[in-house]
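Regression test attached.
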Amino acid sequence: MRHLISPLDFTTEELDKLFDLASAIEQDPQKYAHVCDGKILATCFYEPSTRTRLSFESAMIRLGGQVIGFSDANSSSAAKGESVSDTIRVISCYADICAMRHPKEGAATVAVAKSRIPVINGGDGGHQHPTQTLTDLLTIRSLKGRLGNFTIGLCGDLKFGRTVHSLIHALVRYPGIRFLFISPEELRIPDYIIEMLKEKKIPFREVIRLEDVLPDLDLLYMTRVQKERFFNEEDYVRLKDFYILTAEKLKLAREDMLILHPLPRVNEIDVEVDDDPRAAYFKQVQYGVYVRMALIMTLLELA
Amino acid sequence: MLNVGKIEEGFVLDHIKAGKSLDLYDHLQLDKLDCTVAIIKNARSNKMGKKDILKVECDIDMLDLDILAFLDHNITVNVIKNGEIVEKKDLILPREIKNVIKCRNPRCITSIEQGLPHIFFLSDEQKEIYRCKYCEEKYNA
């Protein structure tokens, strides 16, 4: 039985197969409308996340399966003090597969140890968010036609942004990637990632101003400065508006550059950018459903 | 000068930082062994000024000493058989450490999940970096 805890749980060859399946689903969704008939997905969300939870639920329903779950720790047995280990043992009796989000890092690893059904990590604190990474990779592969040989700029909260960390770890397995890290000093990319890139001899540069590197980018990955990652309200308020991508700034970018964002956005991408053909963040949401459909099928061994 | 007799078979753990022998006694779970243990505290040492020594009389296969490599590299492990030192054991960093150190990351699941063992894995042998099995946070001594 397989689970998905980290995006690196799958080899690049396995990811290729997964993305091929996701693309096949995109081409002909009707063909897959009943592959999960009679199967149940449990969405165990200990913290609010409308987007990820609904994406999982939409994916399962589009495959013909059904969904049970909770979307808030207060409405679950966790409020009564039940451990993750006990919860997953119980859920294993109710469902065929489980997607779990938890505010504590490593919660999904704990669940896997006691689970009798495949577990998908739907985000564990600031640690991993593998299905977002799979979404990002599928979006890039589908819209750029390749995974590899491009320059990607990652902008915003690079310190706490788990989507960014996961994406970097996933991308270093492909050839010809160059990273440009755009962040204020306080939200720099962690040292362990810098060390990893140096060890692997992968080119990167850290800058503060987005405008300085926009013309060089094939992809721009914007992130939100997340209030829940800060212990200190003052720091959050000071840094939240550091980067705002506007149509004016976009004039500096290449015609074929893609703009990605894990969403939700607050104000870091101006709404006037939404109609720009380079804005790919809503298409990214659609790819998120396809990749979760492919993942559910793969983990349930229905692919 | 205090004299502690020879042991026939077992280990002499020498050059333990003064005052730390009881910590090692706990980590090696010597309390669970039915054998003779001598704890010598603040012994005179030319090299260290003061040191602790642990003498454990037991079957030499009974103890897993790898944890010592994590706790203190400078400890000398003498393996004793028939009353003589037969080997100076090289300590190897353990691949995994269970319930010896605790994850200090307040966002880690170990901070709330009851009964969960604190497990660290060796993520970089050269740099001697251990990471929490759950949150992967680096352990800083």
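Expected vs. actual: identical. Chain B has two domains: 10-89, 96-132.
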